[in-house]
Structure formats: C-alpha cells, structure tokens
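So, does this match?
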Amino acid sequence: MSIFVAEVRVMLKPAVNDPQGLSIRNALRTLGFDGIEAVRAGKLIALTVEAADASAAKTSAEAMADRLLANPVIETFDVSVREAAAASEPAP
C-alpha cells in the first residue's frame, strides 16, 4: 500500500447562480481590477488516501465525492491524484 494525495475540486454547475462568485467579481472591480467578466467560486478538498495504486486512490476519492463531498444536483467535481511526498520532504 502507498499513500496518495487526492484533490477533489467541487464547482457549481454553469447553470447554477453563484452569489459568492458575483461578490468576488464586484470586490475585484472595486479594487481596480478591470476586465473581470465572471468569477466562479468552488472548493478544494485534499484527502490523504492509502491505496494499492494511484488508480485505486482515484476511484476511492471519486466515490467519496459522489456520495458526500459534492451535491450532484448543483455541483460537478474533478479528482486528481499524486503520490504523497516522503515524510522527510517539506509539504508544498
């Protein structure tokens, strides 16, 4: 078994209103950042997973996202997996 880091990115579906994204867009414009047409806000969930290989870690993280981490009615998710750094290496 190896240790993997799975990152689950959860975003609202394009048809769903994103009030947090609108607030961020308006605040950026107020701060002088012109040219901001749209902002979509989401969430990133990082999971440390023990699995036989990267494929198994991704399958597990996708099941977690499908069952708990994302609401399939209004959200989509994307999962990426990488091998965890050795304990002696500093985290990025």
About this structure: The CA atoms of residues 27 and 33 lie 9 Å apart. The radius of gyration is 17 Å. The domain at 2-17+44-83 is CATH 3.30.1280.10 (Mth169; Chain: A ,). The chain has two helices and three strands.
